[in-house]
Structures are given as structure tokens and as C-alpha cells.
Specification:
By secondary structure, the chain is an all-alpha fold. The protein is about 70% helix and about 0% strand. The longest helix has about 40 residues.
Amino acid sequence: MNIVDMLPTGRFVGLLGIGLVLLVAYAFSRHRQRIAFDVVVKGLGLQAVLAYFILCTAAGSSIFAGLANGFQKIYQFADQGAAFVFGGLSNPAGPWGFIFGVKVLAMIIFIGALMSLLFHLGVVQKVVKILALVVRPLLGTTGPETLCAAANSMMGQTEAPLLIKNYLKDMTESEILVVMVSGMATLSGAILAVYGGLGVPMHHLLASSIMAIPGSILIAKILLPETEKGMSDADLADMRPETKNVLDAISAGTVDGMSLAANVAAMLISFISIIALVNYVLGAVTGIFCESPLTLSIIFGKIFAVVAYAIGIPGAEIEAAGALLGTKLVVNEFVAYIDMVKSGLSGRSQVIMTYALCGFSNFSCIGIQIGGIGALVPSKRELLSRLGMLALLGGTLTNLLCAAIAGLFV
């Protein structure tokens, strides 16, 4: 009998995955003695409550579906501008499919203008203040990092930092890591809709992105606990816009969005090209000794087979699931989801993998964040580069944690 067939199975195998994720985060923590374990417990509890509410109650499902529809409306407004400039190229239903440079970059520009306007009107400051008052007692986070973590669950890693652009320069290293990890661990509302169209269960995509809010915070605070003094509530309340009027705010936001879009495009081209180069070299070298040349996806797929089992995937399917996790890490979740739909995994395994793949945590996104967030706050670019791999680890661990917890309820 194959040893894989002897592995225990069942819903509660996910508890092993939860423990493994926390153990890895602790092992890579840069200040273990400063970890606030009460925050970890509260964060896990909040994730479990959200999972039950979203997955097991009709009210939870209805509320979060409504939230998703609201954010989708924002992206539809961006589509209007993109369609005027690019015409049919902005329609992903066309024969050319989803064009990143047209669809996503146009959204970044619109979101930049919208968020600058909302900041000028004082809306962002009020939301930050409320979040600081509500969430700080639960997880000990500040308003800006919490707002960005929440916004990332619907707006994406390049647009959400625009919400807190005026706060970024004064944020601590731990707060910046929360911004980065939450960006890696979530997907934007627009991308969620795209994957839903591919046949990935939209309800679970939404649930995963929402669960990743407390998950990304608790993982980031384990990896890099707070050792500095962040902004107080008074500091947040005193933030004032630099723009003179509504038109000035829209213009300034548009310029910021355009700069951000250009940085994202350049970094994405660079990192994906480098990954292709590494895969070519690996294939050329290993092809001499192996019948099937190796790639980064294959290597990480073998490694993640163990992880796939720990988050609740049955033994017979762990290699297929591990390959999906490797593809997501090395290439992106788009390709991984396409492969998942065609993989033939069982229904429950596909649900668990939907949570495990639901994030931007891949190597190319390190470049996106350095370019995107770095364009908003150049003084932090060196810090962003230094925290890039740690953020990637944090985003991956958050997705796996969400998958393991969700597996307890499905």
C-alpha cells in the first residue's frame, strides 16, 4: 500500500495546517520576544468567526455578496473611461481576452483620482479614525495599516495604498509590512470577478479575501512585531489634504495614479521576464541529467505537496494541489486557477484550493509592490526591497491559513 493512502484524512486535518503556518511564521520572526500572542489568538478567533458567518449563515453570505457588488460598481466606472480611450480593447469578453495593460492600469489611474478626491473631502480620514477606534482594541493595529489591509481585500495591492498615501511616509516598518502582506494575501474585486467567470466559486473567493484581513495582520505581526512608536489617534485626526480644491484633488490623484500604473507595468515586465530566464536555465541544466527538465513551478510543487496535505487535501490529490501552489507562487494565481478548474480535483479539494490560491503572493508581485508603493513614498523604497521576500512569505502563509480554517467548515 502506498504511504500516501495511509495518511489520515478528514475535516480536522486542517488543524495541522494551522499549526504549521503559525510555526513557520514564528521561525521566521525577526523579533520573537516581541510577538503579542494575544493578538495571534484574537486574530485566529476573528478568522474563525468570519469563516463561520460567511460560510455557514445566509446573512453572512448575503452581506458579503452585496459588498462585492458595490466594489464592482467602482470598477465599472473605471471601465467607462478605459472604453473611451481604448475602445473594444477594454472589453475582456472580446477575442483578445483580458489585457492587463488596458484593464488593470486604467483602474489604477481612476482609483488614484477617486481616492485623492475622497481624501480632500475628509472621507478617508474619518474611515481611518473609525477603524483605529474599533480595531485597535482587538488587534492592536493603527488606523492606516488596518484601513489598507481592509481595502486590499477588494481593491488590490496597487490601488489600496493610495488610500493611505499621506500616511505612508510616517509608518513604522511593522506597519509597512502589514500593508505589503495584506496586498500579497488578497485579490482585487475586479480580479475576483474574472476568476468567478473562469468557474472558480465566487462565494469562496469573496470569503477568502475577507478572511485574509485579520489573517494578514496577525501573520505580519508575528513576522515583524511592532518595535517602534506609530502614529497616535491625534496624529491621524490632524492629517490635512495638500490639494486646494476638488479639481486640484482629482488632477493630483490622476497624476499619482498614472505614475503608479507606469511603475507597476515596468516592474511586472521585468520580474516575469527574469522568472522566464531562470526557468530556461533550470531546464537547460537539468535536461542534461533528467528526462523531464525542471522548472521553478515543478520544484515548488513538490515542496508544497506536504503543505497541501496539511491544509486538508486528501493524500491522493496532494501532488496535484502542490503543483497548483507552486504555479501560483512562481507564476501567478491566474494560471493556477485555470489549471485548478481543469485539474479534476474533488469538490472539497477545489474549495480548499480556492482559498489557498486567493492572493497575489508570487515573486513578480514583489516588483509590483516595490514599484507601486515605492512610487507613492520614494523614501521607503529601500525598506520595501528589504521586506519583499518576508512579505511574500507572509502573504503565502496567510492564504494557507485561510485555506486550513475554511477546511474546518466545508
